[in-house]
Amino acid sequence: MVTSDYIILFVSLLPSFAWLVFYLEEDPHPEPKRIIAQVFVAGMVSTVIILGLESLFHSVVIPLGVAKYSILSLLGLAVIEETMKFGAARFIITRHLEDFDEPVDAMVYLIIAGLGFATVENIAAAFKSNNIALEITSLRFIGATLLHTISSGLIGFYWARSIMYKSKAWLYKGILYGTVLHAFFNYLILRFGSEPIVLPTTFLAICALFLLHDFEELKHYK
What we know:
Low-confidence stretches: 132-138
Radius of gyration: 17 Å
Number of strands: 0
Mean pLDDT: 83
Distance between the termini: 51 Å
Helix content: over 70%
Order of helices and strands: HHHHHHHH
Number of helices: 8
Number of domains: 1
């Protein structure tokens, strides 16, 4: 039983670490490992706060007649997750501003925080299903984990712009876009969850291409 638990834990970690390695390899000036680790852990810890806020959100809106999986509910849950992932990254970075010296760093750190959050989700999903099949890992790789990579990276891109242009309006716009993207993906999963997830996957693939373009764009700014 113990061995099985370790295997489940190992497999559930693969999606997040695969994306983490990918984006760190894309970073022209890798960030200090200690800061990467701190932001990643902060993203994981944010899960506890997010769960509490989501529970509070439901306790408030459901009695008001808002369905648990309505568009309004999905938007509310998404904005909680996106703002808290941003808060987790910002909390660490404000203590290490010397390592936040390029616009692309905003995207890198937000993606790392998002992957920290996704890691906890993956572990919970793996143990809940008690299934270590490769298909479960694959679905998390192209589904929820990629979603958090994209939504957090998108906010990171606009966070970078807010710093470059000295306007918080860019950051607010990024949180709005990240929230809508997140909620729309969840809607697609709920709508087509019992069918082949071609549409949600295609949606994420297209968004990933735009994110990589944004990543490349920021690389040219110092």
